[in-house]
Amino acid sequence: MNNRISELMHELGISKVKLAKFLGVSRQMIYNYLELGDINKWPKDKKVLLLNLLGVKNSNELDKIKVDTDYIAEVELKLNSLCENKKEDNNRVGSDLLNGISEKNQELFIGVMDLVKEYLEDNGKEGVSIVNYLYHYLQAMNNTKELRYILAYVAKETGFEKPMEFVFEEDAQFIFESVMFSAMVLYRSGKASKSKLSESHRRFVNQIEQKIEDKLSRTMELNNIKVQALKELGYTEINENNATEVFEKIAEIQSRKTAFKKIDEQ
Question: Is residue 16 part of a domain?
């Protein structure tokens, strides 16, 4: 059945890139859809969009489609109209989010959001976890440069980017990609076992637990300093009227604590 879709796209002169833009997904996702073997396995909204574009009510009517000049013109007109409406909807719904982003980057942003939407709609609990992990990944990326290298490695390894393209620190990225490749070769070889790596994973868990403990301690310390600042100033809470004064007092207390700590160390 999907072979028929490929045939129709070819006869209509609709490229996979154009189809991807029409459906609001990546080009790779179009290949994934076509490999499913049955259009009824597509996400429901994408299936309905394509059937509407082709002017049929269900997948059983695909084989009855006769591609002639009139049909090509009809589909082309519908495709252009729907794409224009979709662009207007994106601009209307996401106008605030898209402010300050160039038109080219807006397409990238919308493409990412469409993929996120698909995971949230079609993958249940696993899809939500993937998006949640992605959210935390982006949060952490500003503080950990290696996370950028991981993104580059994955993009290269999957064929989306050139292997010798380095947009970050070239030497560091080169070394990281080499180590990552070696690790993946070992992982895929089947020679790496859970029992052999249990000690390494234990250290990994301990490191994370220590980071969490340090973060909690830091949060408690900051909260205690805030309470002390409010007490010294005679306030019970931070509000718009006293925020500047309270934050200055917090900075002063932190400076005092740092100075005392240096004296103790001496």
Answer: yes
